[in-house]
Each structure stands twice: as C-alpha cells, then as structure tokens.
Fold these 2 entries.
Entry 1:
Amino acid sequence: QVQLVESGGGLVQPGGSLRLSCAASGFTFSIYAMRWYRQAPGKERELVAYISTVSSITGYADSVKGRFTITRDNPKNTVYLQMDSLKPEDTAVYYCNTQRSGTQHWGQGTQVTVSS
C-alpha cells in the first residue's frame, strides 16, 4: 500500500534552515505530483508547496515563496522541502501528500518548531 514517511523536522532558531524529506513507497512515485502541507495548532491544514512529476512545475504558498524550495528525486522515491530563513510562524506539523485515483494519501507528519 501507499506509504509516505516524513523526516527532518526539529527545533530551529529564527533565520535558520531545515530540510524535510518524504520517502514514498507502494506506488509508482515518478508519475504522481507531490505536495507538502502544514498544520499549525488551532489552524487548518494548508498547502505549502507542490511539484509535478518531472519537476518542471512547482508552486508555493505566498507565505513561503522565496524561502522554501521543493524538489524530488525520482530514482530515490523521495521528495524534499528545503526551508530557509525560517520564521516562528512556520511552526507546524509538516505533511507529505499525494493523490491517486481520487484518494488522498498522507504521511504521519514531522514537527517543525521555530523558536529562540
């Protein structure tokens, strides 16, 4: 079955960087778009970034544009989220996502905390 496993979260000071990884299995990774979402306490889950199958198309939420970069390595079945210039408002649980045949698939999430 589809499995998405996120890693790379942690505690970082404002202005710092983290790189999140999402290892995918159970499906043909290279033919599906991938997304990163986040959910902060008391807030709805929001789309942060997406990437097309061959990385030719990427998109970002306005709040992270210019600071976050989404990439993918199809041979490794992995999608990444490089997060730079982190702000306290980036604190959230970050989730990897894909959609197959109308079904949403989610990882378990990884906590990112930006605090001094």
Note: The chain has a mean pLDDT of 96.
Entry 2:
Amino acid sequence: QVLLVESGGGLVQAGGSRRLSCEASGFTFSWATMYWERQAPEKEREFVASINSAGTSTNYADSVKGRFTVSRDNANDTLYLQMNSLKPEDTAVYYCRYYNWWGQGTQVTVSS
C-alpha cells in the first residue's frame, strides 16, 4: 500500500532553514507527480509546492516562491523540501501527497 513518511521538522528561528524529506513506498515513485502541502493551526490545508515525475518542472505557492525549493531523488524514492528564510507564518504541519494519499506530516515551528 502507499506509504509516505515525512521527517525533518522542528523548531527554527525566523530567517533560518530546514530541509524536509518524504520517503515514499508502495507505488512507482519515479512516475509520480508529488506535492508538498501544509496546514497551520485553525487554517485549511494549502498547496506549497509540486514537482513532476522527472524533477524537471516545479510549481510553488506565491507565499513560498523564492524561499522554498522542492526536489526529488527517484533512485531513493524520496521527496525533499528545502526551506530557507523561514518566517513565523510558515509554522505548520507539512505533508507530502501522492494523489489522495498523505503522510502523517511533520511539524515546523518558526519562532520570531
């Protein structure tokens, strides 16, 4: 079955960086467009970034464009999200998504 396991979250100061990972299994990762989404407290889940199967095309929410970079390692079935210049408003649980499957999420907290 599809399994997505996020890691890399934690507490970081504003202006800092964090790299999230999502290990995938149960499907052909190298064929899949993958997504990062996030959900802040008392807010709806929102799109953060996406990457096509080959890693040659990416899209970002306006709120993270220029600060976050999505990438993938198809040899190791892993999705990444490099987050730089973090802001308190980036505080959320971050999820990777494949179609309608999500991982358990990883909490990122940015202190001001």
Note: The mean pLDDT is 98.
